[in-house]
Amino acid sequence: MSVVSGPGGPGRTAAGVPHVLDNPALASLTGPHAHLAESRGRVRRYPVDVSPWLALPDEPDARDWADLAALAGPGTGVPLAGFGGEVPPDWEVTFRIEGVQLVDDGVAAAPDPEAVRLGPADVPEMLDLVARTRPGPFLPRTVELGTYLGIRRGGALIAMAGERLHPPGWTEISAVCTDPAFRGEGLATRLILAVAHGIRERGETPFLHASAANTGAIRLYESLGFRLRRRTAFLEVRAPERLADGRAAVPVPQPG
């Protein structure tokens, strides 16, 4: 694998200008997903039943970290996607997973005749499939983030894939999973291509993330026409019990 570089590469911007995919959660929550955003200062988050991701600005200052603590609540674990800066000393890094970000570079996107659109009524089955296959975070309202497609056999949901982060002009493919009893039939590939087709139909570009250790998945994605854009990291940091000025990190009240 090699990181895309030089003029004309997928997702390229002028030298020195941050790309929208460098902070995809923030770009989503201040862009197409702004209607879902819960905010405090410059910090954004998804509702806790939609997605666990919170987003800091590109160069967070002490005020931003205080706002993040207030949004999350004292002592709460905060997942951050793609954050590469310094974590304040009063925050604890509880885990870090090295990852990769891949972008469409000639994916043969195509609709699939067996794929059906999934909606709120399908969420119990989607949650059950996710619990058995563990593709990543999927919550009761995650389906609101975009289009989810599934394949059924005998009425049962056996495979799915859908859309998650939505920076302007881009859409992330996520929650790709197949029931273990039906693996090896190419269902994940078909669904990835079908979701990518829908993204392309809107005039947007598909991208996705994977654990750097999941070399099998990365090989699959590259064989489909995705190319590595950058290496990244997924980490969780634990908010301090009190802010640096001694005030309690009081969580922001949630609707309902």
TrEMBL record:
Keywords: Acyltransferase, Transferase. SUPFAM superfamilies: Acyl-CoA N-acyltransferases (Nat). The keyword Transferase applies. Gene3D superfamilies: 3.40.630.30. Residues 113-244 form the N-acetyltransferase domain. InterPro entries: Acyl_CoA_acyltransferase, GCN5-like_dom, GNAT_dom, YpeA/RimI_acetyltransf. PANTHER family: ACETYLTRANSFERASE (PTHR43420), N-ACETYLTRANSFERASE DOMAIN-CONTAINING PROTEIN (PTHR43420:SF3). This is GNAT family N-acetyltransferase.
